[in-house]
Amino acid sequence: MTKISIANLFIAIISLAAVASANAAPPTKTSSSAKGEVLTDAGGMSLYTFDKDSDGKSACNGPCATNWPVLKAGAGDEPSGGYTIITRDDGSKQWAYKGKPLYTFAKDQKAGDVTGDGFLNGAWHLAKP
């Protein structure tokens, strides 16, 4: 191969990687529930936000995170649209939507359940698109 064709191949690979990142699927889906349109995880479980979280920072750790499992972000995940990835106190990564960290609720038993909405004197809310 010549230097020119190697350079062209390198440029093509970088271009494909950029397109793949730009077209990354969001980490959530939108589903209908008894309380309207909500964000869900890949399995259809409702997602929630917590009033005690600050923009980009989770206040739900320890036993709280047991009851409210986080929507984990993987090492290769790339934020896009209104989605960001935050770093939790334990160093793990969590998805956030419009700056608000996302969680499921351990007591939701099946896709479409929304039993966590309004929990803890209204501090937990369904995540809305």
TrEMBL record:
It holds the Pfam family Lipoprotein_15. It comes from the Bacteria. Residues 1-24 form the signal peptide. Keywords: Signal. InterPro entries: Lipoprotein_repeat, UCP029720. This is Lipoprotein with Yx(FWY)xxD motif. It comes from Bradyrhizobium ontarionense.
